């Protein structure tokens, strides 16, 4: 928990007495302490990140990752249901602070141009590869650099029944504000691992086939050959929208699948391509005869 007199941030663990207070000055040290969490280096050093918007804050409360919550009076008055959830979390020792802030203060704390009235600081949610189950469908993002796409894929992965999302070294930080917002709360429910290497992915496959998307793939998504592969849990590999997967990474795949496209379209948005592939995995697993 941050000490407002110093402006530092330290996420606490275990039951703590709830502290309620108010911030009206944008020059408060606490405002600066929260604001600095929008930079990756400070998120890593402080072990915390910022969550904005009702759906993401509620998801964080349900998962128990929230340390402190900042709300405007207007939000509290217009969202009694969410305020009740916050009060319940406070009663259950799930959060340590409930801070009322002015609109100006929330604007400075926020990473968006139009804050939604509520913001939370949470402990980092990433896990190590040893902490997640080596089963089910995994999604691996190689050098993913667009936070919006990454967040959307995390959300889609949950919807399609994936058991983990992995980011290779050099990828965007999943705690990035835009990424967090794009997950719509899925960030708190989906096991996420960062900084993985391809050797680690291969060693953790546990019999699952590694499948990559490629314009020159072995078979087409939706074909009988692809469905036969996707009847079983696989590890999907996705590269950047601009360059796709590099040859060395494609060589790691057991199967390469291409997405059929019509017209003059040469490529798809990464999140769109991932959604098609993950849905097809979900469909093939649910109906092996499809």
From TrEMBL:
Entry GO CC: cytoplasm
Keyword Transferase found: yes
Entries under Pfam families matching the protein: MRM3-like_sub_bind, SpoU_methylase
Database matches in SMART domains: SpoU_sub_bind
Keyword Methyltransferase: yes
Classification via Gene3D superfamilies: 3.30.1330.30, 3.40.1280.10
Keywords, comma-separated and alphabetical: Methyltransferase, Transferase
Residue span, RNA 2-O ribose methyltransferase substrate binding domain: 50-128
GO molecular function, one term: RNA binding
GO biological process: methylation; RNA processing
UniProt record similarity statement: Belongs to the class IV-like SAM-binding methyltransferase superfamily. RNA methyltransferase TrmH family.
Record protein name field: Unannotated protein
Taxonomic path: unclassified sequences, metagenomes, ecological metagenomes
């Amino acid at each position: 928990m941050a000490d407002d007199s110093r402006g530092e941030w330290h996420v606490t663990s275990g039951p703590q007495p709830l502290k309620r207070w108010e911030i009206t000055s944008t020059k408060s040290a606490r405002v600066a302490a929260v604001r600095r969490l929008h930079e990756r280096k400070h998120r890593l050093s402080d072990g915390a990140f910022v969550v904005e918007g009702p759906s993401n804050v509620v998801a964080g409360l349900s998962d128990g990752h929230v340390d402190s919550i900042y709300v405007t009076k207007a939000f509290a008055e217009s969202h009694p249901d969410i305020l009740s959830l916050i009060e319940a979390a406070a009663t259950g020792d799930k959060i340590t602070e409930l801070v009322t802030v002015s609109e100006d203060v929330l604007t400075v704390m926020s990473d968006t141009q139009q804050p939604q009235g509520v913001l939370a600081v949470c402990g980092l949610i990433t896990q190590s590869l040893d902490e997640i189950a080596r089963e089910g469908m995994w999604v691996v993002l190689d050098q993913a650099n667009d936070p919006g796409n990454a967040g959307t894929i995390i959300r889609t992965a949950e919807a399609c029944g994936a058991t983990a999302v992995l980011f290779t070294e050099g990828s965007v930080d999943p705690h990035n504000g835009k990424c967090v917002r794009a997950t719509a709360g899925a960030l708190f429910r989906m096991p996420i691992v960062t900084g993985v290497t391809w050797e680690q992915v291969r060693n953790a496959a546990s019999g699952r086939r590694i499948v990559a998307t490629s314009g020159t793939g072995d078979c087409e998504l939706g074909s009988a050959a692809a469905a036969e592969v996707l009847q079983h849990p696989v590890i999907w590999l996705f590269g950047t929208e601009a360059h796709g997967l590099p040859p060395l990474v494609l060589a790691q795949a057991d199967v390469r699948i291409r997405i059929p496209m019509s017209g003059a379209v040469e490529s798809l948005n990464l999140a769109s391509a991932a959604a098609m592939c993950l849905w097809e995995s979900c469909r093939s697993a649910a109906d092996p005869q499809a």
